[in-house]
Design brief:
The structure is a single chain. The chain is mainly alpha-helical and about 240 residues long. The protein has one domain. Helix content is about 80%, strand content about 0%. It has 14 helices and no strands. Helix 9 runs parallel beside helix 14. It is globular.
Length: about 240
């Protein structure tokens, strides 16, 4: 199966880096993180070597970034007329979906990896908890992968890139902030707990503090598995 996935990954990575999207998204994210750390959160005034403030805002940035990364994945195939060709290749639908997912995850890894100079610089100004930083980066990657899986599923349903981007943005906005509904409306306790559990952002809170909770980790893995499964089923339906 791996031999079949690798060509899909290479194709997707070429698609990303042959267009401006990978460069624009990556540069924008790294610049935003740098500006946030050194200017917007008044790092030097606070006199603290911590990235908690930055990682507190990352879930909101991913609401825009993940749809931007995934909007072309399937919608572009439809536009170029290559969707039918892909579905007739001797690859299982799950292979195509996993290939696109892993390619987007690699782009995410590159994008997040380019922010590593930030903690290295901050460590020079005070005691730095590297265990906390590792937990934060693990959380960012898991959150990003969950957003990618949602974006890929939406792209498989969308007719064009714009609709894919907008619908993915809306879905991620809802699932990131759904736990905040209880602050506006007085919900029954059970419903409030359900909303809190479904919130992508709420499960990131422990990671923001550098705490790797297996329940939060499992939640993001389940989100990825669910939406990748739905993506596969969408392709199977289109094939028939």
């Amino acid at each position: 199966m791996l031999n079949n996935i690798l060509p899909v990954i290479r194709k997707e990575l070429r698609s990303y880096f042959n267009s401006p999207i990978a460069y624009v998204v990556t540069v924008t994210f790294v610049l935003f993180c740098s500006i946030w750390v050194f200017y917007l959160q008044t790092f030097f005034a606070a006199n603290t070597a911590s990235l908690r403030s930055l990682f507190g805002i990352v879930p909101l940035t991913f609401i825009i970034i993940m749809p931007a990364i995934t909007m072309r994945s399937w919608a572009e195939e439809k536009k170029m007329g290559t969707m039918e060709v892909l579905l007739t290749l001797p690859f299982r639908e799950s292979t195509l979906v996993l290939g696109k997912f892993l390619a987007a995850a690699l782009l995410l890894l590159i994008m997040v990896g380019l922010t590593l100079p930030l903690p290295l610089l901050l460590a020079r100004f005070g005691d730095f908890d590297w265990g906390e930083v590792v937990g934060q980066y693990i959380g960012v990657l898991l959150l990003g992968c969950a957003g990618i899986s949602v974006g890929l599923f939406v792209s498989s349903l969308a007719t064009n890139q714009v609709s894919s981007f907008l619908v993915s943005l809306f879905v991620l906005l809802v699932f990131t902030l759904i736990s905040q509904v209880n602050l506006v409306f007085s919900l029954p306790i059970l419903l409030a707990r359900v909303f809190s559990y479904l919130a992508l952002g709420a499960h990131f809170n422990n990671f923001q503090k550098g705490l790797v909770d297996t329940r939060d980790l499992l939640f993001y893995v389940l989100v990825c598995a669910l939406f990748l499964y739905l993506n596969v089923k969408t392709l199977v339906f289109k094939k028939w």
